[in-house]
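User: C-alpha coordinates for this one?
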Amino acid sequence: LLVTPVSSDSFTSILRPYYLDRMSVNDISNEQLSFQILSYGESFTVQANTEKEKREWVKVLESSISEYQKNNPQKSETAPVWIPDNDAAQCMRCKADFSVISRRHHCRSCGGVVCGDCSQSKCIVPGVSLSRALRVCTVCKKQLEQKKV
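Assistant:
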Protein backbone atom coordinates (compact mmCIF):
# COMPACT_ATOMS: atom_id res chain seq x y z
CA LEU A 1 0.00 0.00 0.00
CA LEU A 2 1.38 3.39 -1.02
CA VAL A 3 -0.44 6.36 0.46
CA THR A 4 -0.40 10.06 -0.22
CA PRO A 5 -0.10 11.80 3.17
CA VAL A 6 -1.35 15.27 3.96
CA SER A 7 0.06 16.79 7.12
CA SER A 8 -1.50 19.35 9.36
CA ASP A 9 -0.01 20.50 12.66
CA SER A 10 -1.30 17.56 14.61
CA PHE A 11 -2.31 14.81 12.18
CA THR A 12 -1.64 13.00 8.94
CA SER A 13 -4.48 11.74 6.77
CA ILE A 14 -4.57 9.55 3.68
CA LEU A 15 -5.72 11.28 0.51
CA ARG A 16 -5.83 8.16 -1.63
CA PRO A 17 -4.44 4.64 -1.30
CA TYR A 18 -2.56 3.00 -4.18
CA TYR A 19 -2.10 -0.75 -3.84
CA LEU A 20 1.26 -2.22 -4.80
CA ASP A 21 -0.31 -5.39 -6.22
CA ARG A 22 -1.97 -3.24 -8.88
CA MET A 23 0.86 -0.83 -9.62
CA SER A 24 3.80 -0.38 -11.95
CA VAL A 25 6.22 2.46 -12.71
CA ASN A 26 7.06 3.69 -16.20
CA ASP A 27 10.29 5.70 -16.38
CA ILE A 28 9.70 8.08 -19.30
CA SER A 29 13.14 8.22 -20.90
CA ASN A 30 12.44 11.22 -23.14
CA GLU A 31 11.11 13.26 -20.19
CA GLN A 32 14.03 14.25 -18.00
CA LEU A 33 12.16 14.69 -14.72
CA SER A 34 8.91 12.75 -15.32
CA PHE A 35 7.79 9.20 -14.63
CA GLN A 36 4.40 7.50 -14.63
CA ILE A 37 2.66 5.54 -11.91
CA LEU A 38 0.22 3.04 -13.41
CA SER A 39 -2.35 1.63 -11.01
CA TYR A 40 -5.85 0.26 -10.77
CA GLY A 41 -8.39 3.08 -10.90
CA GLU A 42 -5.99 5.91 -11.71
CA SER A 43 -2.66 6.35 -13.47
CA PHE A 44 -0.73 9.58 -13.66
CA THR A 45 2.52 11.34 -14.52
CA VAL A 46 4.76 12.55 -11.69
CA GLN A 47 7.20 15.43 -12.05
CA ALA A 48 10.29 15.32 -9.80
CA ASN A 49 12.30 18.43 -8.89
CA THR A 50 15.67 16.97 -9.94
CA GLU A 51 17.01 14.01 -11.90
CA LYS A 52 18.41 12.56 -8.67
CA GLU A 53 15.01 12.81 -6.98
CA LYS A 54 13.38 11.11 -9.99
CA ARG A 55 15.90 8.23 -9.91
CA GLU A 56 15.39 7.79 -6.16
CA TRP A 57 11.58 7.74 -6.45
CA VAL A 58 11.60 5.31 -9.38
CA LYS A 59 14.10 3.03 -7.60
CA VAL A 60 12.13 2.97 -4.32
CA LEU A 61 8.78 2.46 -6.06
CA GLU A 62 10.08 -0.30 -8.37
CA SER A 63 11.78 -2.05 -5.47
CA SER A 64 8.67 -1.88 -3.26
CA ILE A 65 6.37 -3.03 -6.07
CA SER A 66 8.73 -5.85 -7.06
CA GLU A 67 9.10 -7.07 -3.48
CA TYR A 68 5.36 -7.03 -2.89
CA GLN A 69 4.46 -8.68 -6.21
CA LYS A 70 7.14 -11.36 -5.74
CA ASN A 71 5.44 -12.40 -2.49
CA ASN A 72 1.90 -11.91 -3.86
CA PRO A 73 1.91 -12.99 -7.52
CA GLN A 74 -1.25 -11.65 -9.12
CA LYS A 75 -1.46 -9.10 -11.92
CA SER A 76 -4.38 -6.85 -12.75
CA GLU A 77 -4.88 -4.25 -15.45
CA THR A 78 -4.07 -0.63 -14.74
CA ALA A 79 -5.78 2.62 -15.67
CA PRO A 80 -4.36 4.61 -18.60
CA VAL A 81 -2.41 7.82 -18.18
CA TRP A 82 -4.58 10.58 -19.65
CA ILE A 83 -3.23 12.66 -22.53
CA PRO A 84 -3.08 16.28 -21.25
CA ASP A 85 -5.79 18.54 -22.69
CA ASN A 86 -3.16 20.98 -23.96
CA ASP A 87 -1.59 18.24 -26.12
CA ALA A 88 -4.77 17.78 -28.19
CA ALA A 89 -6.16 20.55 -30.38
CA GLN A 90 -8.30 17.97 -32.24
CA CYS A 91 -10.24 14.82 -31.44
CA MET A 92 -7.86 11.86 -31.58
CA ARG A 93 -10.50 9.80 -33.43
CA CYS A 94 -12.32 12.02 -35.97
CA LYS A 95 -9.86 14.97 -36.03
CA ALA A 96 -12.61 17.54 -35.28
CA ASP A 97 -11.23 20.76 -33.77
CA PHE A 98 -12.07 21.48 -30.14
CA SER A 99 -13.82 24.73 -29.28
CA VAL A 100 -16.08 26.25 -26.67
CA ILE A 101 -18.93 24.17 -28.11
CA SER A 102 -16.98 21.00 -28.97
CA ARG A 103 -15.48 20.03 -25.61
CA ARG A 104 -12.63 17.66 -24.80
CA HIS A 105 -13.41 14.34 -23.10
CA HIS A 106 -11.04 11.60 -21.97
CA CYS A 107 -11.60 7.98 -22.89
CA ARG A 108 -11.34 6.06 -19.61
CA SER A 109 -9.88 3.05 -21.42
CA CYS A 110 -7.02 4.54 -23.50
CA GLY A 111 -6.68 8.02 -21.98
CA GLY A 112 -7.09 9.69 -25.36
CA VAL A 113 -8.70 13.11 -25.83
CA VAL A 114 -11.87 12.82 -27.90
CA CYS A 115 -14.96 14.83 -28.81
CA GLY A 116 -18.46 14.14 -27.50
CA ASP A 117 -19.52 12.37 -30.71
CA CYS A 118 -16.58 9.96 -30.45
CA SER A 119 -17.18 9.22 -26.77
CA GLN A 120 -20.91 8.62 -26.49
CA SER A 121 -20.54 5.03 -25.28
CA LYS A 122 -20.03 3.72 -21.78
CA CYS A 123 -18.48 0.37 -20.86
CA ILE A 124 -17.00 -1.43 -17.89
CA VAL A 125 -13.26 -0.70 -18.12
CA PRO A 126 -10.97 -3.28 -16.46
CA GLY A 127 -8.25 -1.49 -14.54
CA VAL A 128 -10.49 1.48 -13.81
CA SER A 129 -13.87 0.24 -12.57
CA LEU A 130 -15.54 -3.15 -12.61
CA SER A 131 -18.79 -1.86 -11.15
CA ARG A 132 -19.63 1.26 -13.17
CA ALA A 133 -19.73 1.85 -16.93
CA LEU A 134 -17.44 4.71 -17.93
CA ARG A 135 -17.04 7.01 -20.97
CA VAL A 136 -15.01 5.34 -23.73
CA CYS A 137 -14.09 6.26 -27.30
CA THR A 138 -15.45 4.41 -30.33
CA VAL A 139 -12.24 2.40 -30.86
CA CYS A 140 -12.01 1.24 -27.24
CA LYS A 141 -15.72 0.34 -27.16
CA LYS A 142 -15.17 -2.10 -30.05
CA GLN A 143 -12.06 -3.56 -28.36
CA LEU A 144 -13.81 -3.95 -25.01
CA GLU A 145 -16.83 -5.61 -26.64
CA GLN A 146 -14.54 -8.07 -28.48
CA LYS A 147 -12.83 -8.98 -25.18
CA LYS A 148 -16.23 -9.84 -23.66
CA VAL A 149 -17.05 -12.39 -26.38
